[in-house]
Amino acid sequence: MSSAPSNVRVRFAPSPTGYLHVGGARSALFNYLFAKKYKGKFILRIEDTDQARSTGESLQTMIQDLKWLGLNWDEGPSPETFKDMGPYAPYKQSERQDIYQQRALELLQAGKAYYCFMTDEEIEIQREKLKAAGAQTHVESPYENLTLSEAKQRLQKGDKAVVRFKTRHLKKDYILNDLIRGEVKFPSDMVGDFVLLRSDGMPVYNFCCVVDDYMMKISHVLRAEEHLPNTLRQLMIYEGLGWAVPQFGHISLVLDDDRQKLSKRKGAVACDQFKTDGYLPEALINYLALLGWTHPEQKEILTLDEMCASFSLDRVHPSGAIFDRVKLKWLNAQHLRALPNAEIYKKIQPFLNNAGLKLPDDSNWQMQSVELFKPYMEILSDAVNLYSPLDDNKYEIAAESDEVLKQDFTKTVLTVWKEAVSAHPKESFSEAEFLAIQDEVKNKSGQKGKNLFFPIRIALIGKPHGAELKILVPLMNKNSILKRASIALAKC
Fold first, then answer.
1. Residues in contact with 271: Cβ distance below 8 Å, sequence separation at least 6, in sequence order
2. Nearby residues of 491 by Cβ (< 8 Å), 6 or more positions away
3. N or C: which end of the chain has fewer CB within 10 A?
4. Please, is 377 exposed, middle or buried when counting C-beta atoms within 10 Å of its C-beta (0-12, 13-18, 19+)?
C-alpha cells in the first residue's frame, strides 16, 4: 500500500454453524494485525441468519477460541456476557432484520429491486430451456417491471415472493482493485437478477454483508478468496444504494499438502482441537501469520506484538498457502522451550492430571523434571508419555517384555542391579551415578549390550523400549526403583 490508511475499521464475521477452522482463524488474525498496525478497530460480527444451522454452542466455542488466540476485538459480542459492545450494535445479523427490510424497501422504491413471484418449478423450467438454447441460465423474471403497489396487492392476498436485485440493465464491467490480487474485472452479465430477501423475509448473505459493512463503517474487507465470486453482487448493491465501496483484499486459501482445501481427513483443522492437543496459542497464530505472509526480515519466530508492528498487505501472497503440520509442531516446540520452567509445568499440569498421573508436589522436583524433559516436548500433551513412567501406580510390565524375562541372563542382571541400587547411599540418583551402577552391573554379571540394557529398562519402565533411562532415573527415588526391580524379578 502506498500510504498508511487512516480510520481503519475491519471485521471478522464468522457463521456460528460449527468450529473455528484454522483458515477462519487466519482471516481473523490478518484483520486483527491490520487493525493494530494502523491503530484501527477490529470488529467481531456474527453472521447467524442461517437459524437452522447456527447454534449458541458454536458461537460460544468460536468466541472462546478467539480469546484463547489473543485476538481481542474492539466491538461485537462481549467475550464474557455475549452482550453487544460498540456503537453500531446489534452485531448479530439475526437481530438486524428490521435494518435489512428497510434497506431492501429503499431499493424497491427506487426501482432497483422487485418482488418476484416465480415458483421453484417455474425457475427450473426456464433454466432448462435456456440451457438447451445454449444461453446463460440467469433468471429472467416476468415480474421485473411489476410496480410496487401491484406486488403489494399480491402479497396481501398471501402470495409468496422473493426480492430480486435488477441487473439486466447494468451493461458494464465492474473493476475491483484488490489489495492482494490487483485488478479484478467482473462483467455484469456474470450474474442474473439475484435474490436479496427470501420469500420468508430472511436476507441473503451478500445483502447482509453490504448493509452491515456500510453501517458499521468498515473501511477494509479482508477475507478468504472463496468470497471473491460474491464481490460482483456486492459491488452492484453498493452502487444501487449509492454507497461508497470499502477496499477489498482476498486472502489465499489454506491448502493441505496435496494442494487441496484444508480438510479434517489430514488431521486437526479446528482451533479447539489444536488447543486440546496441547499447542500454544502464541505458536499457532505465529504459524498462521506465516501462511501467506512473510516478515520483512524473514523472521519465523514472532510474538503477536512483533507481527502487529511489521504486518502489511503488500507482503501477503495471492497464491495458496500449504498447511505444514510438521512445521507447526516445530514452531510450537520453539515457543514452548522458550518459556520459564515454572510456566511450562503450569501448562502441562492439566494434561498430567487428565491422564490420572500421581506425581510429586515438590516444586524442585517439578522444575528438575521440566529441565530434563523439555528438549523432548513439542506440544504440551507430549508430557503425558514422558511423565507416565514416573508414576508407580501406572507401572506395569508389558507383554512385549516376556521374551526377555524368560532369558537366563535377565535374572542375573536384575539381581546384581537391585543389589547395587540397594547399596546406593542416597535416595536419588544423578545421571552419572546411574551410569556408574550400570557399569558395575556389567562387570559383575558379565553381560553387555541388549542383554544388559533390556532387563534394566524393563525393571524401570516395564518394557524393553521407550524413554531414555538417564533422564528418567534422576526423577525417581530409590524406594520406587527397588519395588519395580522386585516386580520384574518375580516374573523371571
1. 19, 20, 21, 22, 25, 65, 68, 69, 284
2. 397, 401, 405
3. N
4. buried
Are residues 205 and 14 in contact, defined by beta-carbon separation less than 8 angstroms? no
User: For 113, phi and psi rounded to 5 degrees?
Assistant: -145, 165
| Residue range 296-317, pLDDT digits in tens | 999 999 999 999 999 999 999 9
How many CB atoms sit inside 10 A of residue 3's CB?
5
> Helix, strand, or coil here: 119?
coil
Question: DSSP secondary-structure letter at 394?
Answer: G
Distance, CA of 308 to CA of 314 (rounded, Å): 14
In the residue annotation, 37 being an active-site residue is answered as: no
**Among all chains, which residue has been given the C-alpha cell 535374572?**
411
**Residue 471: CB partners within 8 Å, gap ≥ 6?**
372, 373, 376, 431
Is the entire prediction scored with pTM above 0.85?
yes
SS percent in the chain: helix, strand, coil, step 5: 50, 10, 35
**DSSP secondary structure, 287-303, as one string:** HHHTSSB--TT---S--
75-84 long-range contacts, CB within 8 A, separation 24+: 75/41, 75/43, 75/44, 75/216, 76/43, 76/44, 76/45, 76/46, 77/44, 77/46
> How many other β-carbons are positioned within 10 Å of the β-carbon of residue 120?
8
CA end-to-end distance (rounded Å), the chain: 74
Nearest to 453 by CA among 406, 491, 492, 417: 417
Q: Are 177 and 135 in contact (CB under 8 A)?
A: no
Q: Over the stretch 358-381, which tens digit does the pLDDT of each residue have?
A: 999 999 999 999 999 999 999 999
Instruction: Provide the pLDDT for residue 299.
Output: 96
- Assess contact for 454 and 464: CB atoms under 8 A: yes
CA atoms within 13 A on the CB side of 384: 12
CA angle 246, 14, 317 (to 5 degrees): 60
User: Is the CB of residue 159 less than 8 Å from the CB of residue 118?
Assistant: no
Q: Which set of grid coordinates corresponds to residue 162?
A: 422473493
Catalytic residue among 131, 264, 266, 406: 264
Rounded alpha-carbon distances, angstroms, from residue 340 to 94, 334, 375: 45, 12, 13
Burial of 427 (0-12, 13-18, 19+ CB in 10 A): exposed
**Beta-bridge mates of residue 114:** 164
